[in-house]
Amino acid sequence: MSHPQSKEEPSPLVADSTVNHSQNQDPTSLYPDTPTTLDTLSPVLTKDVPLNPNNNTFIRLFLPHKAVQSSSNSQKLPLIVYYHGGGFVYLRASSSVNHDFCFNLAKDLSAVVASVDYRLAPAARLPAAYDDGVEALKWLSTTDEKWVREYGDVSKSYVMGTSAGGNLAYHVGLRVSTTAVDEFGDLKIRGLILHHPFFGGTQRTESELRLGHDEEVLRHGLSLSLCDMMWELALPEGVDRDHKYSNPTVADEGDEKGFDQIKRLGLKILVTGCYGDLLISRIAGFVEMLKSRDVDVEDYFGEGYHGLELLDPSKVEPLFTRVKNLIYKC
């Protein structure tokens, strides 16, 4: 079921820096769509459910098969709401690299995973993806979908995202923390998991200057020019990369209220990164910003490159161990 990428293959974002897609066509041919399966021999069952037909968005659900096989469903599984990466421009929830990651996440952590397919730029600039992220949480809080209601425990929900999805998870977390509790019914977010979050800014950081022309980094990860291009396409027209959507260190009054609510609600935040990622200085600065607000944040940094655990699934165990520890201590 897993389709690991060879270490010799370039990142899809480096390999394809053009934008020629619609919501129904992903330009990143390295990662074609993976179909869902209800095959009883599979350790994880998968299916798509519509989110907002007007926006052509959907949620791909991942359910460990052992939950269905159990004679008693008294012990419900935690719910992980996942937002995929791709610079807000590329990829979908059904893209093989995202499908396989969520498949393994559900299997190894014994969780129901809801992977959100959100609108992409430039056709739908930010905050469209954030809007879709919040809409997905509201749908999960009210749906009668059996996989969510019968097998998942929405009162133990965690919001997770990789790269642009990590950025999305952060902004969705801020929004939800300042929203009336009754808008989300029984759904309770216990923690945020920001996996290699995609941030930017107008001034180059130390790691961007140091790694921006490193051939190994370019082969596996992002380039500065590609990051700049994706932000240009994703941000609202007329703003630069120091807008808060891109640069979270320029938090405004609304964000400060969000930090206070995150503390009041007792949300735990896990931020992960790799030293070979040119964004590592931004990620580390983001962690320090949260700590300065007394937010309960844990960082987990190690060797590797941007998107390591998706592009090389053999490296996923340490990340999943950290995520599991967060889930079962919240």
Helical residues, percent: 25-40%
Summarize the main sheet: 8 strands, mixed
Q: Kindly report how far apart the N and C termini lie.
A: 30 Å
- List the quaternary state of the chains: single chain
Estimated share of beta-strand residues: 15-25%
Layout of strands and helices, then pairs:
Blueprint: H1 12-15, E1 44-52, E2 57-64, H2 65-69, E3 77-83, H3 96-109, E4 112-117, H4 128-142, H5 146-149, E5 152-162, H6 164-177, E6 189-195, H7 206-211, H8 215-220, H9 224-234, H10 253-265, E7 268-274, H11 280-292, E8 297-302, H12 308-311, H13 317-329
Parallel strand pairs: 3-4, 3-5, 5-6, 6-7, 7-8
Antiparallel strand pairs: 1-2, 2-4
Tell me what the structure shows.
There is one protein chain. With 330 residues, the chain is an alpha/beta fold. It is built from 13 helices and 8 strands. It has an 8-stranded mixed beta sheet with strand order 1-2-4-3-5-6-7-8, with helices on both faces. The longest helix has 15 residues. The two termini are 30 Å apart. The N terminus is likely disordered.
